[in-house]
Each structure stands twice: as structure tokens, then as C-alpha cells.
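User: Run a structure prediction on this.
Assistant: Running it now.
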Amino acid sequence: MPKILYLVPNLADPAVARRIDMLRLGGAEMDVAGFRRADTEVPKLDADAYVEIDQTFDARFGQRLVATMRARGSMRQWTGGLGRPDIIMARNLEMLFLANRLKAHWSNQPAIVYECLDIHRLMLRGDAIGIAMRSAERHWARQAEMLITSSPAFMRNYFDVHGAPPAMIVENKVLGSGLERGCNPALGADTTGPIRIGWFGALRCSQSLEALGGLAEAMNGHVEVILRGRPARTEFTDFDAAVAKSPFLHFEGAYRNPQDLPAIYSGVHLAWAIDFFEQGLNSQWLLPNRIYEGCLNGAIPIAVAGTETAAFIERLGIGIVLPDIKPTTLHDMIGMLTPDRLRQLAQAVADLDARLFACGADECRQIVERLSTLSPSRLKSVEAA
């Protein structure tokens, strides 16, 4: 099995730890190197070697760019404790830039895998900046043997249009087989009490917070909203104030994946799987962690029409797809959720095969085995602009 060096822009991102665990479970040896956000603790990662190149800051793209360039210049220093990998897996574009440079550090050059799980809005601009960013991505991706992404919509709407290496889709499933599964409260004996909506994971959509807060206030106790995860506070005017002003909106902090998933999702009827962070672009195309976490643990997913998330739950015959999140639309949704209807919707989720939402050892091994087939990349011929 291969030895993989994982280059990451944020070492403290929980998704990084999950990817390392997935590849470990599949049989790979793992080293990790990257940047850590200045306000985070040193993470505990299951890696044979851990290298912290530098510290960076959220929402400061310019500072991150400078740190990346500095890392390129100091590569001999921070690679001192790293042995030659078979594969360099680069998470996001700036790490792909470093991987291109780092590849030449070893005479027997490793293969490069480009992991891209979000399409940043800079990549989608129609002006000179967007054109330059896409050109840089195409240039650096020529050295890559494979692309890993998490949603078929990223392929249809971006990579198939702008070009990419051969791709493997690795969904954002919960890691582990034989996991305990949560149970929707609608399937219990006591169906009294408020309808509870859970918005869990990366909390970065101000429209969702406003809509959920307004719904909870209007329903005056008939609906409660539970927030769990990591708020991107730079995306909200004042996240804490918005939560504090409503007695029916509760932020209960971060959670562990997968350990806490059965408990937190068993406490809600509905899982909010709507995100307008990059409306019409990345948010429309992604398949978020919360859709897998929620469905695995019995929560009824709510999505908005026209998104890949909506298409995903419609294919499975589950959940609620809304045309929008206007107050009248949300009020109408709550109005039709009688105890019997909630029970029907919850049972449809509970009846599905857990393997749709969880990635076990066999699937991890298949992913690593496919990576093991990669040969060191060759510089590809320059394509016409």
C-alpha cells in the first residue's frame, strides 16, 4: 500500500483528520504537512510525521497567499523530517502549487493527487482574476495523475468544463462500518413537544440563520432550532447576538464525528441541508457532510430545489425539498408536518441502507487500492489557452 504525504491548508480542519483516518483504514501510510489557523490548537492526527509549515488566518486570502509563497521558498527546511512518499495528495489549489514544487524534491518523483472539495468563488469569476485563477489551476493540475472531488455536480459544472485530470468521486460519508445509528424522535412513543430542526456542521450561511431564527420566533415554541458545529463568524454580522435574541434558537457548540452523531441527530426531527454561502455556485453543487450524517442517524433532510443535495434526496425518495426559504414557505412546511407525516418521513430515512451514508473499511481499501495504481506523473503537453 502507498505512502501518502497529505498537504493541507488547515491542519485543524476536522475533515483533514477524517481523510487521514479514511486512508489509514484503507491501508495507506500517512504523513501530513500544512498550515494551521492561528486561533486553533495543534490537532491530534493519526500521521507518522506531522509538519506545521506556518500559521494562517481565516478569511485573509492575501495572507494565506504570502504564507504559501514563503513555504515554497523554505521547502528544504520543513521537508527535512519527511521521507519520500509514493503520492502527494494536495488539498485545495494552494497545496497543489506546493505539490508541484515539492515533487522535484525527490529524484524518484511521487505522483500527485489534487483533492478539491469546494470550488472557491474566485475560481468562478468571469473577469481577469477568475481567468488567471483557472489558468493557474489547469497549469498545476497537469502534473497531477488524479483529481478527488466529492460531488458529481462539481464535475458537470466545473471540471468537465475547465479541464481536470482523471477523477474519482469520494463522497463525504461518515467514516466507519457497523456504526450506532440514531433514531428520529418521530418514531418514538412520545410525539408531543416542538418540532426540532438541526443545523449542524460548517455554519456559514447568514440567510439560513436569518430564516431559521425568523421561523422559530414566528412559531413561538412550536419549532426549536438546534445549532451545532463551527460558525464561520466572518460570514455573520453577529452570530452570537442572533442566537441570543431568540429563546427558541440554541447553539450547543462543536461535536465529534462520528462519536456524537447518533446523540445529536436523535435530538432533532429535521436536518437543515441548505446553504447559500456561495449561492448558485459551490453551494448549489456540493453534497455536504450533514446530508450523510443526518440521514445515517434518522433525521429528515431539508433541501432547496435545484441543488445537488435536493437531487440526492429525491433519488432516494426521502426528505423535504423546498422551492425557497421564504417565511411563508417555511410556515407552510411546518403546517403539513403532523405527527403521522413526520413518522412517515422519518421511517423512509430509517429504512435506507447505512452504506449509502457511511464509508466502511472495504470502501476505504478500494479508494487506497485505486490510488496505488498511480504512476509518477509526466509533464503533460501544454494545452491551448
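Confidence is low (pLDDT under 50) at residues 377-385.
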